[in-house]
Amino acid sequence: MKKIFLICAVFAFHWAFSQQSKIKVIESKKIELTSELSKDKIDFYNQSFLRFVDALKISDKEKLQTMISDKIKYYISDDIIRNLVGGISFDRKTEVYKSGYQKLDENEIYPAIQYKYADDKQEPPRDIITVIFENDGKILGVKPDYSR
Fold first, then answer.
1. pTM of the prediction?
2. Which of 13, 55, 64, 92 has its CA at 20 to 30 Å from residue 138's CA atom?
3. b vs e for 36-45, b when ≥16 Cβ sit within 10 Å of the residue's Cβ?
4. Are 75 and 97 in contact (CB under 8 A)?
């Protein structure tokens, strides 16, 4: 009887630890830029971003509508504008940190620039603003990552 109990215990132990776990890995929406943009493209997109920030500063929704992509105009609301205003510091000067191309969910590749604040000397910077552009300079997305 002890042998049967021991054999059943070994099988039960083996069965309990041989079950496959159901761990699901969820991909992070981390922004990874590939291949750097040329200097003239960076200048072109930077001018577009600076005009966007100026319009954002005064909350000029009509001017913002002309500067953003037609693909996202439907989603722009007063709440989104308020969130952007709260996520970007207008008192601090920005400078280009990285540039490149960003692949989005629909497998389209767009130019992107990551900005850091000039007074942020940490590597990597604590506060980064990632801006994704269309080829014509219209803004497709803005994602401020700032420390609390």
1. 0.73
2. 92
3. ebeeebeebb
4. no
